[in-house]
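RETRY 2/3 - previous attempt timed out on the joint model. Re-submitting the same 218-residue input unchanged.
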Amino acid sequence: MLDKLIGIYAAFFLGADIPRGVHSYRIDKCLSCNYLSTRASSLNWRDRLRKILFSPPFCTLCKCQIYEKTSQGREECALRKYKNEFPLWGRIYVKFNSKKKMNLTNLSGKQVQLNYDTDNAEYTVSLERISSEDKSYSFLLQLDFEAKDFKALKHLKNSCGSCIATKLVGIDGRKITTQTFVKNQGVLGTHTKYIYVGYLNEQEVLIEERIKVVYVIF
Ligand code: SF4
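RETRY 2/3 succeeded.
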């Protein structure tokens, strides 16, 4: 609830925190969605009243005004939460208020959905569905270590050498940019692979974070 209130405050008073191109991409998706208030075939009485009283279009699932909702990197399309379907646009950032975790940003501009599962303390990157005719798919992630004890990147590894590969693109202080390639081996269905990020803290202790990568080849 607190996150939701912070998001509403940021959207209305601080403005967009994502690149303009990403914002336009998300708005276009909402404008063509049948859950948008201006396109929905049936509305309940509250939504009908709201539509009459307020002009800005809103999502009939989460009830947010779409221009503001799409302007925030932490937000995601409501389909996952309300319909358990893959969202039409993804979360750009996984950011923590505590300074103890690795923050993630999707830099690729593609439909890449980022999440952090607090129960399993696990990062997840879900990719849009990959056609069996596409030979490969790649995405860029920025890993941003806010922890004061980050000293140096030690390794980037993957769980499977033949179907996923991650390389270092650049390091800027505690910001590390990586590119991950998913190779289509012609096996249809859902695949789960991992990226392992190892780094040293100031006491020279090796710490490893794991990022789960989920994709569907159809
Ligand atoms: S947030 Fe998702 S479900 Fe809601 S209007 Fe936008 S695209 Fe449709």
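Residues 22 and 109 are 7 Å apart (CA to CA). Closing ticket.
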